[in-house]
Amino acid sequence: MTQENEPIRVGVLGARGRMGQEVCKTINRSDDLELVAMIDQGDWLFNASDAAAEVVVDFTTPDVVMDNLHWCIDQGISVVVGTSGFTPTRLDRVKSWLDKKPEVGVVIAPNFAIGAVLMMEFAERAAKYFESVEIIEQHHPAKVDAPSGTALRTAQIIGEARAAAGLGIVPDATKDEVSGARGATIDGIRVHSVRSMGLVAHQEVLFGTQGETLKLRHDSFDRSSFMPGVLLAIRAVVNRPGLTIGLGDLL
Amino acid sequence: MTQENEPIRVGVLGARGRMGQEVCKTINRSDDLELVAMIDQGDWLFNASDAAAEVVVDFTTPDVVMDNLHWCIDQGISVVVGTSGFTPTRLDRVKSWLDKKPEVGVVIAPNFAIGAVLMMEFAERAAKYFESVEIIEQHHPAKVDAPSGTALRTAQIIGEARAAAGLGIVPDATKDEVSGARGATIDGIRVHSVRSMGLVAHQEVLFGTQGETLKLRHDSFDRSSFMPGVLLAIRAVVNRPGLTIGLGDLL
Amino acid sequence: MTQENEPIRVGVLGARGRMGQEVCKTINRSDDLELVAMIDQGDWLFNASDAAAEVVVDFTTPDVVMDNLHWCIDQGISVVVGTSGFTPTRLDRVKSWLDKKPEVGVVIAPNFAIGAVLMMEFAERAAKYFESVEIIEQHHPAKVDAPSGTALRTAQIIGEARAAAGLGIVPDATKDEVSGARGATIDGIRVHSVRSMGLVAHQEVLFGTQGETLKLRHDSFDRSSFMPGVLLAIRAVVNRPGLTIGLGDLL
Amino acid sequence: MTQENEPIRVGVLGARGRMGQEVCKTINRSDDLELVAMIDQGDWLFNASDAAAEVVVDFTTPDVVMDNLHWCIDQGISVVVGTSGFTPTRLDRVKSWLDKKPEVGVVIAPNFAIGAVLMMEFAERAAKYFESVEIIEQHHPAKVDAPSGTALRTAQIIGEARAAAGLGIVPDATKDEVSGARGATIDGIRVHSVRSMGLVAHQEVLFGTQGETLKLRHDSFDRSSFMPGVLLAIRAVVNRPGLTIGLGDLL
């Protein structure tokens, strides 16, 4: 837990990546935060503990993020994670590490844009009122995973809300389908991943019932849109032990 | 207040209009409701009291709705109102009538579609997180009023939420404007009314902040979309004395 | 070929279906057309020839449409076809039948809405300027085929235009995909089929290049939107021997 | 007229502005172009003629662009203009200057993005098929003019196409309007200007007829989207004497 009036000491993992650079700049502009370590491939994680980082922000890759998390939690450093690829199995492992370090906080968020967080909140709220729902996410063609982490998380949230409301499966008479046309099925929800030059990061949740539809659409036009959410998470995680999924509870 | 297991006795004002006909059909299909009076231009309002209507549904026009409401409240009949044109002055008059009949309930809703109700709820929730917000409503070209009642109500809700959050005016550097280009200003919010053949009833609320936008869009494709909300309001109003604006609190 | 000033004699196959009924009503309202035969399951095709139909409109099903076409062409009756399911193989068979009856005309259109026809024309025109393109079609959940016939035809048109312009494959770095997320691949173009209550018939073609996107979107809200195109095809086919695919050339 | 294989000598006016800087970088990366003069406020226009510029690109402001154009035409230098504010009166003056210098070319374009150029071409083509049409343009809130130059040009194109097709006024029953709700009227077409943080430069043209709508939407996410069009215009203008409005004819 940080002292009053002292800036929070922050390290950044993946500091030379596109998101990492933006995070470093944003921390430097914030009076209540101090950037104490910039770490990337080939650097020692110990740089973070040597610099007495209280929080580490991780924008790395799915293949190294679990090792990073394990090491930080062991060191008693809280973590804000923007890296994707968190399956239920991975989340369970993080929880087991945190059980042994009850004072450490970890925030793992699929999306740090305030609009995306609200989109997920609204999708959860709307789910029980509509028989039909599908997710269409749209990203630049350099993205390697489909669907996006945000879409996966949204589908999971909607699936849980439908189950809690006793809604059955989404109506669909399709019997003659060219393979893939109807998208991926995530927790019972159809998800479509569009990739195109010109796009950045976009998602639409389409709800439908008799005679009407409701669309929730979020558009991220540049990485600056994620910075307010990253700051919010850094400031919250130092006083929030345990695992937090998404920024919804921090708003 | 209605007895258990007895159907609610309902009268419809404007019963020969497009919405009124749909309401009558919907009531006839509902086991817990009984259609006891169908009243339109040239018919006596007393038909509703003679038939012992407990609730009257009013889809008439702005020039007669106030007389209808006054009469119903005097008779002790609760009312569900879908007619548009309710200014703050009109609402104050309805409240003053209800003060003398504390057991009577009135629900006045700008829109009975569940998606529209949620759109307004979400707009209120999102308002404080975005510096920018505008409303674009789109309707068929036979509509006589612009903006729509739903857009006016949404603007009012957003304006109040911004004021409560201490947000200032929406940023806008426009200094060279062809008259009307920037829309109407309702409670500080710009509202644009699009009219086109092929359209039915649509509204988009656009929120924006640094690097991102969030859109809430509702599309009504036919009048059937309003019926679940009308039923909800009829069933609620018999046990809900006083004035209720919008369906938000009934969900 | 029809005589001047005499109405064109039209028969309708699938006359009791939803589209068929609308077509019959539309023909009845047109002074230059005469509805001479309404035929559906269980009726004799000979009713059309007995009534001296010059044109037959076919809105039936993929399993009977080929027999209908063969019979009409044999009888020397021109045909306007709105039934879906026309593969290249089927089109070749229709051509071979027409070779023996050079005076007969057949128009097969995946979509009779003017907006859909223009959407396809514009998609063909835009294709060579954008590295990326995907199709998202959205329909009511009672639809049995995915993608829609219009989407298949649009993909084919775009694929051909890209090939003619020497464009390579659409850029896509996806390597970690939940099966189906990236849609169906039709002639090299990704197609996504969304199904939801509240929807009618909608399609969006998304083009993208560096820093910009262009979207062409068509929305059909009811079957009346197809009638002007059906009339156009009926009037054209009597003077247009051979096979015509789509309404594009008739505009 | 430029010699074969020699790079075209280009000067840039407004070279220190946001668009100007991007144009300079783009010219520097192009083998067939040579950047010979970068001119901004306080610099001499003669720098362009001293450097033997064959083409000048002008991204300045409406208050200086006419003087720039007059000077360039007098000097026999062709011009590509991206500055906005060209009224019919201004265009007539440019034409009168060109009459005296028949070998000089001027291209004035409201938008250099290929998607915007196609949007305008398609809008012109579609106009005669739809009774209803409206334009909704959306930009960042730092924009000073409303509607945008692109929207004004699109409205003009559509207005002319409707007149040529004998279409009357757009249907609109509005009689109770909050001032501005129905937008600005440009050549008979309603134009709505939305301003919001998070937006860059976007425009939608909505066409409607019975039961259907067709939407053409262009989104520019960053200034890089304009560069291919600027290059196209530079290369074309050296061999294209006289005044050319828009890039449509250069595609």
Which key phrases capture this entry?
elongated; DHDPR_bac (chains A, B, C, D); 4-hydroxy-tetrahydrodipicolinate reductase (chains A, B, C, D); homotetramer; 251 residues; EC 1.17.1.8 (chains A, B, C, D); five-stranded mixed sheet; cytoplasm (chains A, B, C, D); alpha/beta
Structure, explained:
The structure is a homotetramer of 251-residue chains. By secondary structure, the first copy, chain A, is α/β, with parallel strands linked by helices. Chain A has two domains: 8-108 and 224-250, Rossmann fold (3-Layer(aba) Sandwich), CATH 3.40.50.720; 114-220, Dihydrodipicolinate Reductase, domain 2. In chain A, 33% of the residues lie in helices and 27% in strands. Chain A has helices spanning 18-28, 46-50, 62-75, 88-99, 114-126, 149-164, 227-237, and strands spanning 8-13, 33-39, 55-58, 78-81, 105-108, 132-139, 145-146, 176-177, 184-186, 189-195, 201-209, 212-220, 242-245. A six-stranded parallel beta sheet of chain A has the order 2-1-3-4-5-13, with helices on both faces. A five-stranded mixed beta sheet of chain A has the order 9-10-6-11-12. In chain A, helix 3 (62-75) packs parallel to helix 4 (88-99) and helix 5 runs parallel beside helix 6. Chain A is elongated and about 60 Å long. Chains in contact: A-B, A-C, A-D, B-C, B-D, C-D. The interface between B and D is large, with 49 and 49 residues. Strand 12 of chain A pairs antiparallel with strand 12 (212-220) of chain B, so a sheet runs across the interface. Chains A, B, C, D: Catalyzes the conversion of 4-hydroxy-tetrahydrodipicolinate (HTPA) to tetrahydrodipicolinate. Chains A, B, C, D: NAD(+) binds at residues 14-19, 40, 82-84, 109-112. Chains A, B, C, D: Belongs to the DapB family. Chains A, B, C, D: Pathway: Amino-acid biosynthesis; L-lysine biosynthesis via DAP pathway; (S)-tetrahydrodipicolinate from L-aspartate: step 4/4.
